[in-house]
Amino acid sequence: MSSELRKLVEKRDLTSDEAFYIASSIMKGELPDALVAGILIALRMKGETPDEIASFVRSMRSFMIKAEGSPNSIDTAGTGGDGMNTVNVSTASAIAVSSVVPVFKHGNRAVSSSSGSADVLEAFGYDINVKPEEVSPLVRKTNFVFLFAQLYHPAMRNVAPIRKTLGVRTLFNVLGPFTNPASVKRQVIGVFSKDYMNVLIETAKILNYEKIILVHGEPGIDEVSVSGKTFVKILDHGKVLSEEFVPEDFGASIIDLNKLRTSSAEESAIRILRSSLGKDREVSSFIRANIAMDLLLIEKVKNLRDGYEMADSLLSELPSRAKQIISSHGNERKLQELLDKARG
């Protein structure tokens, strides 16, 4: 393994086999922490290639607990890591859009923000610990399921302490969206940095995704932005298209990002509900823009303006959607308490 580390220090790329071998050794806990840390930092300093990332993804998939998927399903998991503490819009849009497409939402607790998808769903009252055998029945019943990363990726326990000690972004920050336990083939992936979009769209191509939409929004969020431009990379059956959008393209107005920030999972959940009730215009616009991108992914609309309009009705139905989802796997009383606060 020292030869691979030496190669990385010399800024030479790993072969696919070398990267897969290293990733698998890390997952098995076979390498000393210091060596793992050195490899991850060397990869970052060199710059990870699509082949290296794809090999790490394949290794991570080989160790994950798999869930039965659906051929037409989607996911909205992002890389995280933007540190902007905005409303958890990808989770809100996933709930809303599940009325028209099966959603296998892969996610985790917050790392760099005030709330992750797991935290917000728990605040709503959802039981995030969904067992593999529960996945298909829940999707058949509600068209939605949450796949908690910590439950489905047990091998990551060998990496978590090292990542926490390092305290900087590593290759593992971008693996999550590509390792959905239900192996979805269509995704909207928010990316923490515009500079990382090219390498990730090439990674998606190597991994044979059917359709992927990568988004990065100004002023630096891993979401569709209503505060500036949104940069988009679309992979559709092997072809890549690059686009840029501004809020006006959706039919939205520009909104100060500070009006979209939250300090806790409960606050995020309440503001999501308030937006669905017509009581939070700024968050409503933010969520609708992201729903619009999901609708474009599944070709439910031809353009983002149409998607933004359709998103209005989907967002208004979010409380009833959430009630159905949570009553099937969670505590409906917690949702009702939040709804009461949202209406107040």
TrEMBL record:
GO terms for cellular component: cytosol. It catalyses: N-(5-phospho-beta-D-ribosyl)anthranilate + diphosphate = 5-phospho-alpha-D-ribose 1-diphosphate + anthranilate. GO terms for biological process: L-tryptophan biosynthetic process. Its cofactor is Mg(2+). It holds the Pfam family Glycos_transf_3. Transmembrane segments: none annotated. Belongs to the anthranilate phosphoribosyltransferase family. Catalyzes the transfer of the phosphoribosyl group of 5-phosphorylribose-1-pyrophosphate (PRPP) to anthranilate to yield N-(5'-phosphoribosyl)-anthranilate (PRA). This is Anthranilate phosphoribosyltransferase. It comes from Sulfuracidifex metallicus DSM 6482 = JCM 9184. The lineage of its organism: Archaea, Thermoproteota, Thermoprotei, Sulfolobales, Sulfolobaceae.
